[in-house]
Design the sequence.
């Protein structure tokens, strides 16, 4: 299957919102879930460091990964949400989006990538482990995962 990846634009927002709902429905095995609050996604479209990468098949957004840049004691990327539409899973799109985030981290001199994964989301957990992420901490219903990239200096 052929797909392209690109930086999301504001015109992708409705599709990203729909993919977020689909992701939550999968994780929690229920139809009635709450989506993003109004205005939440704006930070990804306002030309700051935070951005969303999408995967597209035949002109339709079928996956996305939101990427946040944090400048705290140590700079790190936080991968906020990754969603691949059910019919497009297991085709390498999620892997590719994470690889793009890793390349972005290297380009910006950031060596640590963090995110959370629900313990019930075993397929995502296996993907992250396969891509070199490990458990940093157990936070009850979810794990905080980390990947430290090779020294960039």
Sequence:
């Amino acid at each position: 299957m052929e797909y392209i990846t690109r930086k999301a634009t504001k015109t992708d927002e409705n599709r990203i919102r729909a993919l977020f709902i689909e992701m939550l429905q999968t994780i929690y095995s229920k139809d009635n879930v709450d989506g993003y609050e109004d205005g939440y996604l704006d930070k990804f479209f306002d030309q700051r460091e935070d951005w969303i990468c999408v995967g597209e098949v035949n002109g339709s957004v079928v996956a996305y990964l939101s990427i946040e840049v944090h400048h705290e004691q140590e700079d790190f990327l936080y991968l906020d949400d990754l969603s691949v539409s059910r019919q497009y899973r297991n085709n390498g799109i999620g892997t590719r989006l994470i690889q793009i985030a890793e390349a972005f981290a290297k380009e910006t001199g950031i060596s640590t990538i963090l995110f959370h994964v629900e313990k019930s989301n075993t397929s995502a957990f296996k993907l992250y482990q396969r891509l070199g992420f490990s458990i940093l901490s157990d936070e009850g219903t979810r794990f905080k995962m980390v990947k430290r990239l090779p020294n960039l200096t």
Remarks:
- Residues 4-148 form a domain with the Aminopeptidase fold (CATH 3.40.630.30).
- The chain has one domain: 4-148.
- The chain has a mean pLDDT of 93.
- The beta strands are 4-7, 51-57, 60-71, 75-84, 112-118, 134-138, 142-148.
